[in-house]
Design a protein that fits this description.
0% strand
């Protein structure tokens, strides 16, 4: 019981700080602790990530760019629905390979310099937003990752969104994507009990208190660097655990 609470706390804290990364550390932890497959863990993680995102939105609410979030969600929802319906046809190696690729790509994009302002201004932003939405929705449905690990660096680089705004905005997208993906596939097989899910969600809620205090103690630039460092550490640990 304490272990499950701890897993929920880790997921909630990481997601609150980075806007993504909660699922990539939660997936291997659920697999190891409960002895379930990656496919089952990718379903069980969805309501946990969704709830963690909803709670974390309160921390970042002033930095959320609703227009950007709405545009991304408009394309991510159809992708999450369609892919979720056909997930049973996707081989397990494809799911695990996709998960590893997302983690590594997110890590690279996190530390990659932002595109020059002139380049961003002249880019077809509508196409970028659509592509980001489709990628986020597909990732959520296939791997259980809410999409924040790729949303944040892609918004920062291709849309010119300040890192802290990208973190906040991604939480809205992740919450909606997780709910849609779980609705399309969660009723088929939820591999953990209601009690286990409740304990995980309690851990998610309590860990956000620590995240709130951390945000109060940290300046804007400091907060952005902490987000990048935490995500990088989480990504490396997740890769090691999956391997």
């Amino acid at each position: 019981m304490i272990i499950l609470w701890g897993i929920g706390a880790i997921i909630g804290l990481v997601l609150a700080i980075t806007g993504g990364g909660g699922a990539i550390i939660g997936l291997p932890l659920l697999m190891t602790t409960l002895g379930i497959s990656l496919r089952d863990a990718s379903v069980a993680i969805l309501p946990i990530v969704g709830m963690a995102s909803v709670i974390s939105i309160a921390i970042h609410r002033r930095a959320i760019q609703l227009r950007t979030a709405g545009s991304i969600v408009a394309t991510s929802i159809p992708a999450a629905l369609v892919v979720g319906l056909y997930k049973s046809m996707i081989p397990d190696p494809v799911i695990s390979g996709g998960l590893m690729a997302v983690i590594i790509l997110g890590l690279i994009q996190t530390w990659r310099p932002k595109a020059p302002s002139s380049e961003i201004a002249g880019a077809p932003k509508a196409n970028h937003v659509m592509a980001i939405g489709i990628i986020a929705g597909t990732l959520t449905a296939v791997t259980g990752i809410g999409g924040g690990v790729i949303l944040v660096p892609m918004m920062a680089r291709f849309l010119g969104t300040p890192y802290q705004n990208a973190v906040a905005t991604s939480l809205v997208v992740v919450a909606i994507n997780a709910a849609i993906a779980f609705g399309s596939q969660g009723h088929h097989h939820l591999p953990i009990s209601t009690m286990q899910m409740a304990i995980l969600l309690i851990g998610v809620g309590t860990s956000n208190l620590a995240a709130i205090q951390l945000k109060k103690m940290c300046s804007l630039s400091c907060s952005g660097m902490v987000s990048k460092l935490v995500y990088s550490i989480v990504a490396l640990i997740s890769v090691a655990m999956i391997l």
